[in-house]
Amino acid sequence: MSEQNVLYLTNWKLFIKGDDRALRVMFDALVEELYTFGLHLCTDEELVKDAIQDLFLDLTRYRANLNPEVHVQAYLFSSLRRKLALAIKRDLGNTQLREQSAVHMFDFEWDPETNFIQREEEHVLYAKLRKELANLSAHQREALYLRFRAGLSYQEAAMVLDISVASCRTLIYRTVKQLREKLEVTKESISSILWLLTGPSK
């Protein structure tokens, strides 16, 4: 477990024991990540903000029932994902297809003028990758985001996606392999490129 995750878990346990300051520490540390993740699921900024506020209110409300041994970041991502899906389903109406919910529209933006692309050939490569990312399923794009941008482990990403760890590993492996074959780049190159492209738009 990383030092950061240890810190999250320490504050999580303190909060469960009654320390409200620990919740504020977690909120300050994770709110930007949660907001960015939420915007990838839903373009309504106010809805995302409301969902995050509701999430932390729920933590206080149901503190006594919380599990002290969790992957905190993954738990919060997963909880926010469910809240947004329910909120959008409610807004759309129960007759809407499941594919129209936020969690099935996962997307990310990319600015082709961003300063990490310095050479013309890099512009071409990133443009090709963006095209290939658009051809992936929303499930594949979300898995890549969780693994390469949010930095979650396979176990944590699986928790957010609500699939088994084995399925998560297979999903990410096959997706990255597919992109590498399409673009003819190394594993190391595709990893660094994905980290940049799945970042928040400015």
UniProtKB/TrEMBL annotation:
SUPFAM superfamilies documented for this protein: Sigma2 domain of RNA polymerase sigma factors (SSF88946), Sigma3 and sigma4 domains of RNA polymerase sigma factors (SSF88659)
Superkingdom as given in the UniProt entry: Bacteria
All residue ranges annotated as the RNA polymerase sigma factor 70 region 4 type domain in the record: 128-179
Molecular function as annotated in GO: DNA binding; sigma factor activity
Keyword terms: Sigma factor, Transcription, Transcription regulation
Pfam families, alphabetized: Sigma70_r4_2 (PF08281)
InterPro entries: RNA_pol_sigma-70-like (IPR039425), RNA_pol_sigma-70_dom (IPR014284), RNA_pol_sigma70_r4_t2 (IPR013249), RNA_pol_sigma_r2 (IPR013325), RNA_pol_sigma_r3/r4-like (IPR013324), WH-like_DNA-bd_sf (IPR036388)
Single biological process term from Gene Ontology: DNA-templated transcription initiation
Record family assignment: Belongs to the sigma-70 factor family. ECF subfamily.
Record's protein name: RNA polymerase sigma factor, sigma-70 family
